[in-house]
Design brief:
Blueprint: H1 4-11, H2 21-44, H3 46-55, H4 60-63, H5 68-88, H6 92-111, H7 118-136, H8 143-149
Helix pairs in contact: 2-3, 2-5, 3-5, 5-6, 6-7
Length: 154
């Protein structure tokens, strides 16, 4: 007679296999670059980004919450932290979630209301890519996968 654990093992879904681990890692790395560059720009060229926020049609939505300069610096730090996490595949779901939380208000305040739709839909596409990593994680070529393989990991 089969035991309860045998039945559970038969009904448990198999571990997810990544059909293309190298392209997934490349996708993650290339996606991270936009956040690393943007975050660096927010930190090193703060006044320019503050000016863009203040001139944006819906920038008042952000500046009603806090002054522009601290918002830009905070966004820059989050973009750098999330971009680095995404690049390394470290706490990838959280890093991608953080980046989503940053890119959504940036898209609403800066991209909506511009004369061209290209930057808006670029951000929409980036949000889709981030949702992939929020739901699937980093994949096998990542710090996350390395930590999970360690015998002393929880």
């Amino acid at each position: 007679m089969p035991s309860l654990s045998d039945a559970a093992a038969q009904t448990a879904p198999p571990p997810r296999a990544w059909p293309r681990p190298a392209p997934t890692a490349l996708f993650r790395g290339l996606l991270s670059l936009i956040f690393l560059v943007a975050g660096t720009g927010h930190i090193l060229n703060t006044e320019h980004i503050v000016g863009r926020l203040l001139e944006a049609q819906y920038g008042f939505l952000a500046t009603a919450i806090a002054p522009a300069r601290p918002l830009v610096l905070l966004a820059g730090a989050a973009l750098l932290a999330g971009g680095l996490g995404l690049l390394l595949g470290y706490r990838t779901r959280g890093a991608a979630g953080l980046l989503l939380l940053v890119i959504i208000p940036i898209t609403i305040t800066i991209q909506i209301g511009r004369p061209t739709l290209g930057p808006l839909f670029k951000n929409v596409a980036i949000m889709g890519a981030l949702l992939f990593f929020v739901t699937h994680g980093a994949g096998p070529y990542s710090v996350d996968a390395f930590v999970q393989r360690r015998p002393d990991s929880p």
